[in-house]
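User: Before I run my own analysis I want an independent prediction to cross-check against. Here's the chain; please return only the structure tokens and, at the end, one sentence I can use as a sanity check.
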Amino acid sequence: MTAATSTDTVADRGPLPRWWARPATVIVFRWSFLLGCTVAAFMPTWLRLAREASDGAITAYIFVLPLLAAVAAQGVARRRSGELPIHDRQTDIIVGGLALIVAVSVKALWMPRYADQYALAHLDVLSALVFFFGGSILLFGLRPVGRFWSVWLLLLTLSPFMYRLIAIGLGGGRFAYGSVLVLLAGLAGAIAVGRTRRRGWLGFLCTTFTGLALLIVVLRYWPTIDIVWLQIIPTVGAAVATGSAFYVAARRGVLGERPRRRLAPSTAKWSLSSYAVVLAAAVVLYVIPLPPTVTVSNTVGPPGSTAVPLAAPTGWTRTDIEEFDWVRAFFGQSSTLVRERMRADEGNPAWDTHSRPRTVVVDVLSTTNRASLAVYPESTLYQLSGTRTSPKVHVALGHDVTGQLYTSVSEALLLSWTKLVFTWVRGAITQRVTIISVDNHEDDAEFPQPRPSMTSNLGTSLSTFLRGNAITTDANPEYKDFDLLTSFATALVRAQWLANPEAEQ
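Assistant: Structure tokens:
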């Protein structure tokens, strides 16, 4: 947070050794302490992100953000001059302390409300950023930290949820995810070289076009490159190249001269209590647990081609089939979502008092990107904002397949749906099967339609934040179609193996 300036003023540091008062020593120690606390306090988060990245999740970009921030920050630091050694430690302590409290609150109070959407939102990353911001104020002072407001805004701009929302809006392909980060790199380049508005726009355009060119080249010659490198090479490469080019252009003709600039001392006084507060907050944040890891079942599914719809079980007839192509933006360009409507051949008084034949729908999502199934829960496939969901009941369906059954109640439509969800692996394809029934037994019963629901999830998340989990939880569920769905699902699973009798053991 300090860089070269012309001032030699050193803040009063109390009875510290003379060597300790050297600006370089102070800055290195404070940066090391702050970075060490940030890494240690959120070590479970960094490990979780690394595992997700190794599984192919796009959250690897979070490790790219510090590199872009460093590129932007060095440009801001080089433009600092004539900074007065004015500081108010009381203000620093108040603002920094409040930021640390917010960081703890986000991880301890806010994150548990969105445990099911943890991999989608990663609110612990927001907590880490707020902690780093508060610690910077306590150690370096509010004024020096405030000079880097554009860098803080850059880091805050692209949360995991917003990153996915923007990329999906652009099509959801690898180029879309890469281009969003290229635009962010353009902002970093603009901040780094933006001594004037003209230079800022020029830096943005140069960085963006360079990044897009690198992205196209990488995808052209290495189309299957790991997502981590796809995010690092175009973004960091373009930002560094643009910043270096502008620096060389500015120093043209004087590259051999050493600029007479000295490292400025920190204007914030030494305060042992500031270190203690940052350390205490780091310890508290470390002991706050993360939500359980969402595991995608690796149960071996039935043999046969995944391009063929699921076979209808005995006593049921497929009456309609429909395919949705929007899932490619969420689960990969090779993913598919097929809905099969199936109707019982005969009525069952246990399922309907008038013995009317019941109808269910079977939604089959197929993808090669298993990591995406953990990021986007089954509920994200449907726009069901304003519904209350019951606890899940585990049901054994045979062939080592276990399903999860729950209900969703819509007070607006005065309807309730019962869902049974299970996942299996068929070769390189992972399939998530969702079976849905509705408490309206008429032929024109309304089933939830698969639709892109990121904005719907955002509205539900806002309501949950304001009113708590109670608005989305059905504390007294009625599993009316429990027997219907378990019987149908068991028969459906058995039918897939019977469709390939040579594979039956």
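Sanity check: The radius of gyration is 28 Å.
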